[in-house]
Specification:
By secondary structure, the chain is α+β, with helices and mostly antiparallel strands. The protein is built from two helices and six strands, in the order αββββββα. It has a five-stranded mixed beta barrel with strand order 1-2-3-5-4. A hairpin with a 2-residue loop joins strand 4 and strand 5. The longest helix is centred in the last third of the chain and has 11 residues. The two termini are 24 Å apart.
Amino acid sequence: MQTALDDRTIAVLAKAELVLIGQIEKVEDSPRLWSGRILAFQSVHYLVERVLKSELFAKTPGQSAKISVRHLLVQGARTVDAAEPRLVADLFQPGQRLLLLLKSDADGLRTLDADRAVLLADAETVKAVERSLGNK
């Protein structure tokens, strides 16, 4: 899993409507198909720990929020299993903290990109994202 911010990740970060740190509560079953002519998603439920950028979501300090995010299932993406159309099991498990780059559409929240919109929420990556966003 990539943690450093490369130019492609910074470009995705700039386009994100919502950037947050979330802790996985539940991973829904895979639809068992890859994105192609029709986009395929696997939903994950998160407890929002911290919002870093928001054009759509306001969170009162001390108030927890739960969200559901649809993750794109694109064959060959680093967030999906190499053999089956599902999210990588060792990354997407309850309790895991992830930094998410999201957008909204008619069906709710979804990852902005299949490859660059999910990062480990380690201290170094969070600081790099904050610097890129101009937060700190």
